[in-house]
Write a structure and sequence with these properties.
about 350 residues; mainly beta; 2 helices
């Protein structure tokens, strides 16, 4: 299940929800503050909705399921209009990341069950993304200039990172000791953050500079490191697992310094997104197995919160204004998208 849960942001939340329901049943809402003034949304026909990227202007993208095995990407504008994003020939699709120009990066499965990356442009056209030799491509993040990063499998089942420049040129890359490379985010300067598996099965964070230099890193005491969002200044948010199998959030500054943090009452912290001012968001579990959202401010204060009435709150994205997007689950375990404008 570990690999499936790491393939995409949607699958990551879905796997957490599935584990929560199987282990604890429907979780009860806790005493953390409830979000007020938020918008909950679902595309028509959705039985589960996951939002996990938000642009500076408030456009949200994600994916929704119409059955257990059929899913589609979507784009929700700041005025609430929802557009389904399915590239031509797609039988299933995900929308993973959106920039302020309205360009979207994602991936889709075709009728031959081959998975391709795609770029959706402002003229409403789709461009397929497949690095040379790819048999399976996931495009996961797009920056303000239209550069895209993600990963792909080759014919030998090797997994590599890629960068597709705004001009369409594709560069493949891997950290030196990687056997499985998982880029997660790209900033305006084309710096890329992510993580990779080594031959022993451990994971390590990495950052790739615009010139192609790759540096790996791990918080002190980490046995598994997962680096996710990177902002314009090169600060990175993520989480790691310590020697006692406890998960903690971290913020890594561009100079390599790492700050570890956990919301009060956390038994496991998962940080995913970071704003230009280095606010960090994600979610954490408490002793009862309930998942709550959190926001770490620039002064280091960490505040937990819940969507009102939710059995679980799973923020995935934050934009420059501090607006949040993610998913929440109701008392029946159904996932819905949410947006909190600020």
């Amino acid at each position: 299940m570990r690999f499936a849960c790491l393939l995409s942001r949607t699958l990551r939340v879905a796997c957490v929800v599935a584990v929560l329901l199987l282990t604890f049943g429907i979780a009860q809402t806790s005493n953390t503050p409830a979000l007020r003034g938020f918008a909950s949304f679902d595309p028509p026909g959705s039985v589960n909705t996951y939002a996990y990227s938000i642009s500076p202007s408030g456009t949200v993208v994600g994916a929704y399921f119409v059955s257990f095995t059929v899913y589609h990407g979507f784009l929700r504008t700041s005025n609430g209009q929802i557009t389904v994003l399915d590239p031509p020939g797609a039988t299933k699709s995900f929308a993973e990341s959106v920039n302020d120009r309205g360009q979207v990066a994602g991936f889709y499965k075709d009728s031959s069950s081959v998975v391709h990356g795609y770029l959706f442009s402002t003229d409403k056209t789709y461009t397929t993304i497949d690095p040379p030799g790819s048999t399976f491509t996931h495009a996961l993040s797009i920056n303000a200039g239209g550069a895209v990063t993600g990963f792909y499998f080759d014919s030998s089942n090797g997994q590599h990172g890629f960068l597709r420049g705004a001009n369409g040129a594709i560069t493949s890359f891997d950290p030196a000791d990687s056997v499985q490379t998982m880029p997660q985010s790209i900033n305006a300067g084309s710096e890329i953050s992510g993580y990779y598996f080594d031959a022993g099965g451990a994971t390590h964070g990495f950052v790739r500079s615009a010139s192609g230099i790759i540096s790996s890193f791990d918080p002190v005491g980490s046995t598994f490191t997962y680096a996710y969002g990177i902002n314009q200044t090169g600060n990175i948010a993520g989480y790691y697992v310590d020697g006692n199998s406890v998960t903690h959030g971290f913020l890594r500054s561009a100079d390599g310094a790492i700050i570890v943090f956990d919301p009060s009452g956390s038994t496991g912290t998962y940080a995913f997104a970071i704003s230009p001012s280095s606010k960090v968001t994600g979610y954490y579990s408490d002793a009862a197995g309930v998942y709550h959202g959190f926001e770490r401010s620039t002064n280091g204060a960490v505040v937990g919160y819940d969507v009102f009435g939710a059995s679980g709150t799973y923020p995935q994205a934050i934009n420059p204004a501090g607006a949040l997007a993610g998913a929440w689950t109701d008392q029946f375990g159904t996932a819905h998208g949410f947006l909190v404008a600020k």
